[in-house]
Amino acid sequence: MEDILKQNDLSVTGSRKKILGLFLAHSRALAHSDIERKTGEKFDRVTVYRTLQTFVQKGIIHTIPTADNSIRYALCKDNCSEGHHHDHHVHFVCTQCGNTYCLDGVVTPEIKFPRGYTFANIEVVAEGVCKNCK
Ligand SMILES: [Zn+2]
Ligand SMILES: [Zn+2]
Ligand SMILES: [Zn+2]
User: Fold this and answer.
1) Full-prediction pTM beyond 0.85?
2) Ligand 1 centre and the CA of 70: distance in Å?
3) What is the distance in A from the centroid of ligand 3 to the CA of 28?
4) From ligand 1's centre to the CA of 93, what distance in Å?
5) Would you say 70 and 31 are in contact if contact means Cβ atoms under 8 Å apart?
6) What is the dihedral of CA 96, 107, 29, 7, to 10 degrees?
7) Which among 93, 57, 89, 54 is positioned nearest to 72, based on CA atoms?
8) What mean pLDDT, rounded, does the chain reach?
9) Residue 54 Cα to ligand 3 middle (Å)
10) Residues 6+ apart with CB under 8 A from 95
11) Which one of the ligands is nearest to 98 CA?
12) How far is 58 from 7, CA to CA, in rounded Å?
């Protein structure tokens, strides 16, 4: 885990280690509130927020938009680097447990856009029942 921080030129701090550990331990995406709850009293909101921002910048985690506007975060596995994310996979929101999962093997479909529209980014968030709730 410390290797991930060092590879990204980040000094190893308690909050970074703790928050990165949470992502490594969970297969689902985590909301800011999940992270706050799991880190308990140890780190304040600002520290958690800054750590998440740093991880997103460095290409360690990516954000997932959700219907209720609470951004979720998940570990990057697609060789993301600083300032460059390649997380072109579908995200799956389970309507039963409310968890969000990265479907790493499911690539975002290509869409043809009309003339004059320059494509930059597409987010696909699918809804349904996850394998744990089946
Ligand atoms: Zn990424
Ligand atoms: Zn579920
Ligand atoms: Zn993802």
Assistant:
1) yes
2) 18
3) 9
4) 18
5) yes
6) 170
7) 93
8) 92
9) 17
10) 127, 128, 129
11) 2
12) 10
Cα 27 to ligand 2 centroid, rounded to whole Å: 12
Please give the pLDDT value at position 56. Answer: 97
Cβ atoms 32, 49 nearer than 8 A:
yes
How far apart, in whole angstroms, are the C-alpha atoms of residue 15 and residue 11?
A: 11
pLDDT in tens, 60-102: 999 998 877 889 999 998 789 999 998 989 999 999 999 999 9
Beta bridge partners of 74: 62
Alpha helix (H) residue ranges in 8-133:
14-25, 32-39, 45-58
Q: Evaluate the CA torsion angle 103, 107, 111, 116 in order and state its sign.
A: positive
Q: What is residue 41's predicted lDDT score, i.e. its pLDDT?
A: 78
Q: Which residues of 72-96 are buried (b: 16+ CB within 10 A; e: fewer)?
A: bbbbbeeebeeeebebebbbbbbee
Instruction: Give 123 Cα–ligand 2 centroid separation in angstroms.
Output: 20
Q: Quote the crossing angle between the two packed helices 45-58 and 14-25, to the nearest 10°.
A: 70
Q: Ligand 2 centroid vs 34 CA: distance in angstroms?
A: 16
